[in-house]
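Below is how a single chain appears once it has passed through the pipeline. First comes the sequence as given, then the structure the pipeline wrote out for it. We keep one example in the README because the format questions we get most often are answered faster by looking than by reading.
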Amino acid sequence: MKSVGEIFTRGLWRENPVLRLLLGLCPVLAVTTSAENALGMGIATTFVLISSNLVVSAIKGVVPSQMRIPIYIVIIATFVTVVDLVLKGYFFELSKSLGLFIPLIVVNCMILGRSESFASKNGLFKSLVDGLGMGVGFTLTLLALGSIREILGAGALFGVALVGLDTPRVLLFVLPPGAFVTLGFLLWMMNLLDRGRTRNA
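Resulting structure:
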């Protein structure tokens, strides 16, 4: 049986949703033109992931097996609606920047996958920890992508120009191809670190 620490940390490294499982790549590639957008999407997704995990875990004993997927989708859609309304009400500029990708959290296979593979088989606390770990791993990956792309493509971070930055701005990084290049670099770094850990083990 996995400990709470193992459940949390596997979302950060061994089962990182983006860099290991390659899940939810549509918003990962589309919204990471800036660190602010990346952080906003990461927090929104983490909220939905944790909330849906908790509800699925709480009702797992009464959900008919043949109806579980539609029910999980309704649960996820409910929390996505909450996020969408909060963003529109209190963070309108961020909501405009993220656009359609907030409603598309409903069909993010990472969230449905955690509901099906973990929350429906475990208790509330472990489901909370799993959702938090996966969400933090997803958010950190988005933040890394968004920061790299914004620094190299716009010479700024969180919209603030970096004074004294001598690196020339490369427009490619704020365009769609830049997302693929940056993600490929992070995947390469992840594999490189893994090989180093394996050799040192």
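The helical segments are 4-10, 25-30, 35-59, 68-90, 92-98, 109-117, 124-154, 176-200.

See the next section for the split statistics.
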